[in-house]
């Protein structure tokens, strides 16, 4: 008999909510057959272009083109992701489609609404479980915040609204195999957050694979 399919667990959230730390802790807890992935994946050719766009505010790209690069960056890793899961490996992922849609839609460009932003990601492997980390503390004193494009409080607030719109839209479509769990991490230590996440992951019902 072949291996059971692995699980794709996604951690999403605004900047500086502790996603990367929590992804690493979860990967360790899930054990050896678990791979950690992050989007944007800055190691590929497309990812390098995205990196330049993020670190250099004078690097001009039409917003639509920037959006398509982020999506293409996911598509170039899609077969790798599918094959890992089919081989029975778990994947813990740091940002994915939801960030792609929410950050672009938050720019409020005419014609670039949620639907437009979502459309080019349709067909990507879909997570079995999504954890959305919410921290209601201010970003002002966080080290390094403000160095990259999008790292300012007024834009982050717009992104937050787009994330919630997107989750509501998903819920209204009643697509029951794509749970999004909101995890409030305000005032929590790293250990407290990792415990919350671990409890949710362990309680998650058996889920089947599908695509966006
Ligand atoms: N981001 C991330 C997007 O705008 N679109 C996407 O599809 C993804 C995956 O890139 F501001 C934004 C979110 C963030 C920036 O992400 C870099 P990290 O996680 O901070 O590296
Ligand atoms: Mg960042």
From TrEMBL:
Gene Ontology biological-process annotations: dTDP biosynthetic process; dTTP biosynthetic process; dUDP biosynthetic process
Residues folding into a coiled coil are none
Cellular compartments per GO CC: cytosol; nucleus
Q: Does the keyword Zinc-finger apply?
A: no
Q: Where is the Thymidylate kinase-like domain?
A: 11-197
The broad enzyme category this protein falls into is transferase
Q: Which InterPro entries match?
A: P-loop_NTPase, Thymidylate_kin-like_dom, Thymidylate_kin_CS, Thymidylate_kinase
Checking PROSITE patterns in the record gives: THYMIDYLATE_KINASE
Q: Which Pfam families match?
A: Thymidylate_kin
Similarity comment: family membership:
Belongs to the thymidylate kinase family.
Q: What is this protein called?
A: Thymidylate kinase
């Amino acid at each position: 008999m072949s291996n059971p399919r692995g699980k794709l667990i996604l951690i999403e959230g605004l900047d500086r909510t502790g996603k990367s730390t929590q992804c690493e802790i979860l990967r360790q807890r899930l054990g050896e057959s678990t791979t950690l992935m992050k989007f944007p994946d800055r190691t590929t050719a497309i990812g390098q272009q995205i990196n330049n766009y993020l670190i250099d505010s004078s690097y001009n790209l039409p917003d639509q083109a920037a959006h398509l690069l982020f999506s293409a960056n996911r598509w170039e890793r899609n077969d790798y992701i599918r094959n890992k899961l089919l081989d029975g490996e778990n994947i813990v992922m740091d940002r994915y489609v939801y960030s792609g849609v929410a950050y672009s839609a938050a720019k409020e460009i005419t014609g670039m609404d949620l639907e437009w932003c979502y459309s080019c990601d349709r067909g990507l492997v879909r997570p079995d479980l999504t954890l959305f980390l919410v921290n209601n503390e201010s970003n002002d004193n966080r080290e390094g915040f403000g160095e990259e494009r999008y790292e300012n409080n007024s834009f982050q607030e717009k992104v937050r609204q787009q994330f919630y719109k997107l989750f509501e839209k998903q819920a209204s479509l009643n697509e029951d195999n794509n749970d999004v769990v909101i995890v409030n991490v305000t005032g929590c230590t790293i250990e407290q957050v990792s415990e919350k996440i671990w409890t949710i992951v362990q309680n998650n019902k058996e889920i089947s694979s599908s695509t966006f």
